[in-house]
Structure formats: structure tokens, C-alpha cells
């Protein structure tokens, strides 16, 4: 019975991963297309408005299902993964602030935005990618060590 609960927890954890990381990658790709003038800022803003809800829901699903997977919280890897997730959550709030600033600035050309805004955007996206990839890699290592 416990094994069945763990399988469902893992299933929901993977669903959360697919939804969250998929939405993050989509936003980052469209963001890169905006930087290279292939899409408009308004399209990126529209997409991020939808993606944020999916990402936050996915993170919530992953946190809850992750707890149900009964991780070894004394493990250095698990501590690092928890730290990465906390950084992702904090960074998510900063990305929301950046999105709201972009709405107010009303500038379609990334290269004409204030340098500070450009740097904040690149830093926040880099932190997001680093956090997601860290959590993915540690999750993989932890799942491999259960065999």
C-alpha cells in the first residue's frame, strides 16, 4: 500500500516537473526570440501571464508530492535540492516584478530598455535555469540511488 502511494506521489511529481519546466522553457525560448526581435514584447507579456499560473501550480504540486516521496532530508543532495527550490520560488517573485515593469515600460525593443532592466532580466532567467536544472539533476541522482 505504501509502495502504491509512493508511485502516485512520483507520478504527480513528474507531472509537476513536466508542466513547470515545460512552461519555463517555453517562456525562456520566447524571451530569447523577443531579444532577437522575432516576437513582440506584448506577446511575451501575454505568454508569461499564462505561464506563471502553470509554473506556480506545478511548483506547488512538486513541493507537495516531493514531501510525500519522503526524501532523506539529512542528505546533502536533498538539502541542495530544497535550497534550489527555495531560490526558484524567491526568483519567481522577482520575475513577476520584472514582468510588471516591462508592462509599464512599453518598449518592444529589448536593446532599448534600461541597462539595469536588461541585467535584472538576464540574471533572473539565469537563476531560474540554474535552479531548475539543479533540482532536475539532484532528483535524477536521488531516484537512481533508490535502486
- Give the number of helices: 4
Helix residue percentage: over 70%
Class computed from helices, strands and strand pairing: mainly alpha
The global form is elongated
How many strand segments? 0
Order of helices and strands: HHHH
**Largest sheet, described in full?**
none
- Residue share in β-strands: under 5%
Poorly predicted sequence stretches spanning 5 or more consecutive residues: none
Mean pLDDT: 93
* Terminal-residue CA separation: 19 Å
Radius of gyration: 17 Å
The quaternary structure here is single chain
Tell me what the structure shows.
The chain has helices at 2-35, 41-68, 76-105, 115-144. The chain is mainly α. The model has no long low-confidence stretch (mean pLDDT 93). The protein is 83% helix and 0% strand.
Quick gist of this model?
The protein is an all-alpha fold. The chain is built from four helices and no strands.
Secondary-structure topology with pairs:
Blueprint: H1 2-35, H2 41-68, H3 76-105, H4 115-144
Helix pairs in contact: 1-2, 1-4, 2-3, 3-4
List the main descriptive attributes of the protein structure presented here:
elongated; mainly alpha
